[in-house]
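Hey, can you fold this one?
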Amino acid sequence: MEEVRWLKAMLSSELEVRPPTSDKKEEKYLAGNCAKIYRDGNLIGYAEMRKVGSHIEISTVLVDKDFRSQGVGRELIEKAVKQIGNQKILCCTKNPAMAKVLQNLSFKSIGWPGFWTATILTFNTFARLLSMLIRLEFKRIWRQGKGIHKYERYELN
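Sure. Predicted structure:
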């Protein structure tokens, strides 16, 4: 239950990622297809992985603020890449620090991820927007929307 509290707190404070859901759904996310990093038995890093078209997307990357700039983000992405294995990996970000991590791990900036992948990404974006509208999360909508043109897509083959 401590991990669920940590994840929900991180999702609540980080407006650039998906909004938190119920405890039960967050437990499923934590037990599902994700990479986690621990220090002294405590969760400090988390990333979700999901199938998006012909790619596996690494999304909702979270690092506890007390452990940032210490290589945890890189460790988390490396762990996710290992778990994914030999598949095309996609990561979308507008965060310069995350972009640098991805570039250092041989991810290449791409323009068009392919029709099917782009379609699913667009659908997911609209579904998230609808969810945030229903929850009246206007601050999160503003934060995510104002820099949407700055998102870059990175791929690892």
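The chain has one domain: 2-156. Let me know if you want another pass with a different chain boundary.
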